[in-house]
Specification:
The chain has 52 residues and is mainly α. It contains three helices and no strands. It is flat, with a radius of gyration of 14 Å.
Length: 52
């Protein structure tokens, strides 16, 4: 039972990172002037609640 809980917890931690990376990938497609703002928005949206 502990291994199941550990797997769920590790998946829960990986998902925000994957979402952030997907978001940043989208940012790199957009114009370079907006890229820094876009990366900040991605960080706040996907990582702030989990890591900061």
């Amino acid at each position: 039972m502990n291994t199941i809980d550990a797997k769920k917890m590790s998946q829960a931690q990986v998902d925000p990172i994957e979402d952030y990376l997907e978001c940043v990938t989208y940012c790199s497609i957009s114009s370079s002037a907006e890229e820094n703002d876009c990366q900040t928005i991605c960080m706040e949206r996907h990582l702030k609640s989990s890591y900061f």
